[in-house]
Amino acid sequence: MAGKQRRSSMPPSWSRFSVVYCVLCLMLAALTFFEISGCGRSRAQGLRPDLAGVWDVAYEDVIDVEVTLGGQTYRARVPGEGGTAHLHDAGSELALHVDCSRPELVCPNEALDTELQLTNRMGAIEDDGDTLVISLLGEGADTCRLSKGSLAHARIESHGSADSKSWRAVALSGGRAVSMLSAACLMPAEDTKVALQQANVKLSVGFSAVRR
Question: The pTM is what?
Answer without folding.
Answer: 0.75
